Description:
Strand content: under 5%
Number of helices: 4
Distance between the termini: 58 Å
Amino acid sequence: xxxxxxxxxxxxxxxxxxxxxxxxxxxxxxxxxxxxxxxxxxxxxxxxxxxxxxxxxxxxxxxxxxxxxxxxxxxxxxxxxxxxxxxxxxxxxxxxxxxxxx
Length: 102
């Protein structure tokens, strides 16, 4: 399907609509008419990560998770010290007062 055919078929009024969509979702070559070659999408699955890349990615995720945990612990400390709010996790099997009423 060509650029013009897509406009006609889907009722797209402005040419910038397709351009914006292409910029957002991918760069497809419309010069040959169809962005797909023989029915296969131009965008393929990304290459699998090497072990080193995977380790770096996992280390970054671990660091982010640790920072989030420290942040939430700091929030809990502030709530307990400044506002007197006690945040404790309920043991399994104990229902809240609202749940018992149902």
